[in-house]
Amino acid sequence: MNNNKIIAVDFDGTIVEDAYPEIGKVKLFAFDTLKKLQSKGYRLILWTYRYGRRLNEAVEFCRQNGVEFYAANNSFEGETFDPAAQSRKIHADYFIDDRNLGGFPGWGEIYEIIKYKIEFDIEGKEVIPYSKRKSQKKEGFFSRLFGK
Ligand SMILES: [Mg+2]
Asked: For the domain that residue 33 is a member of, what is the CATH number?
């Protein structure tokens, strides 16, 4: 599948355990998922608090683990950030970050969300909302809230 979707990915606490300024242990399935996404045409941007030497270390670490980013802390490679002319927020279709509301779901679940919600959407297939698929396995929101 070819698509032009851009995914911005955080580093500390997302790709690796948060051990900033050191590089923590790789999170389970992080690089497998990122490589799989790249193979499906997603462009990955590293979107992190790191800059300078610490940023380079993270980029190099990911490269050694088989993931080359489309850009790091920019919307595209070589972009020069001008705060007078543009917003600091990068352009991306999806953000993967351990600071997401609701917490970090884990890479297995992230891949599932992308596969069953986003790809089906891109292909024009019927999308089963992730929340519905979840509720097929678990009790619904109201029964969890008001049930015994
Ligand atoms: Mg983080």
From this structure: 3.40.50.1000
